[in-house]
Amino acid sequence: MAFDPSTVRGEFPILDQAVNGRPLVYLDNAATTQKPRAVLDASRNYYQRINANIHRGTHLLARAATESHEAARATVARHLNAAEPAEVIFTSGTTDSINLVASILSLAPGDEVLITTLEHHSNIVPWQMLCERSGAVLKVVPCLDDGTLDQAAFGNLLSDKTRITAFGWVSNAFGTGNPVLQMTAAAKAAGSLVLIDAAQAAPHMVIDVQALGADFLAYSGHKVYAPTGIGVLWGKRDVLDALPPWRGGGEMIKEVSFEKTTYNDLPFKYEAGTPNIEGAIALAAALEFVDGLGLESIAAHEQALIQRAADGLSSLPGTRLYGPADRIGALSFAVEGVHHYDLGTLIDQMGVAVRTGHHCCQPLMARFGITGTTRASFALYNTAEEVDALVLAVEKAVAMLR
Ligand code: PLP
Asked: Within a domain: residue 364?
């Protein structure tokens, strides 16, 4: 299917409904995206035709489920341009993927972990926990007033003590896109491991892990049109091979005895227990769906929407937009004299779903001296009419609240 925003919308049954008596305008896509028929069908088909536990069965359904699960891994690997499917670890999401990496690294007192002010809590707290356990020190790259990272400070904070550098590709709060190629190259040159949080990049851009040169990359299925509860940790084979396992249990072992247990090879070494089989299969369907439409075309459509929203909202008196002009996926704003929570609640009554609050980025909000923003975030199925409905709803709500 070629990408035609007006027809592709019909693939998302949930969008065809009224909320509070108005047509649903869903602009909370950075929190989670809606699911196309192809994904809903893949989930239903799995449970109606295939469901069995994988890897250990000899019966037909067990073999079919195993084949579908491993085919899904191959699809994810292809989508990321990974060197091999074994570098793709299925997790429950970005949070789980980052916790996995933070749990298997062993650092020493005085080692440093480098993150940035733009991070989501899930790319902050696991590193703080690692630092608490190990005596390592957390360093943070500051953010400039335009919502971009201070790249000079980033360069200065990298040192021969930096063991891991973890940063988001795209900020969920401000839509800032970071120069990940340049940042990865600088961190690698300093001898650091690199983890990229691609939670907000995956829905909007082509990811080529071999071109990026990082060691780890994480994203969540549900932000890229797949179900919740499935996600990806991609890791370079030589790096993951050299690291210890994480959770213990079935599937991650070669042989177990009370005297000694040996661990399985990648990717199973990091996939203890029964995985989210249906989730992996539905994730592959979602990736095939976006690849079929073309991520570049999707991104161009979303960029036009975000620009229209930025123009419309900034024309309203007292509105401040956060983040750089070339924001990706999400647009955060505040209206003078109006609390974001009140604004979000009122525009919901007009059918417009946005997110308000700190967006799991409290340190970033503190940096800007605010408790939160109102955030509209965009997906492939959004339309210019919906952007206009957002702007009109905000205008009306502000008039009521002031
Ligand atoms: N990182 C970023 C940039 C995010 O936007 C999010 C979710 O909003 C996460 C990490 C956490 O993702 P999940 O809750 O799916 O694990």
From this structure: yes
